[in-house]
Amino acid sequence: MAAEQSEKFKQAVEDSRKLKQKPGQNEMLDLYGLFKQGTQDPPIEKASKPGMFDMVGKEKRKAWERVVEKGTKPEQAQVEYVQYVEDLKDRYGFDGAATEAPAEEKPAS
Fold it and tell me: Cβ(93)–Cβ(19) under 8 Å?
């Protein structure tokens, strides 16, 4: 069963897509692990394991397993995810304007 997601967590997920610069690979893996633990959709015990040649999938799984092995509960993973995204916004910049609705078009005269 998926964990209930806080509004701050949902906003952080959206904000993570609006960073001005893409975080490094390790930062992306850290975000992935916290996200997966925070959502529990599915829980790690029920998630399928990546195939033998799926190196990216294996690294993602390891990142998630590290969060689980620390004993991080879904609610705590969400809190950590929100803080991590805030740190990344400070480090890489944030395009908050992307959340604004586009200006209305004027009708043709």
Answer: yes
Q: Is residue 59 within 8 Å of 33, Cβ to Cβ? A: no
DSSP 19: B
Residue 40 makes CB contacts below 8 A (sequence gap 6+) with 1, 2, 3, 74
Exposure string for 92-108, b = 16+ CB within 10 A, e = fewer: eebeeeeeeeeeeeeee
Assess whether pLDDT exceeds 80 at residue 102.
no
DSSP secondary structure code for residue 104 in this structure:
P
What count of other Cβ atoms lies within 10 Å of the Cβ of residue 56?
10
Residue 16 tokens read as 């993570």
pLDDT in the model for residue 98: 53
Mind listing the pLDDT tens digit for each residue in 28-51?
999 999 999 999 988 999 999 999
Residue position matching structure tokens 């009708």: 107
pLDDT at position 97 is 65
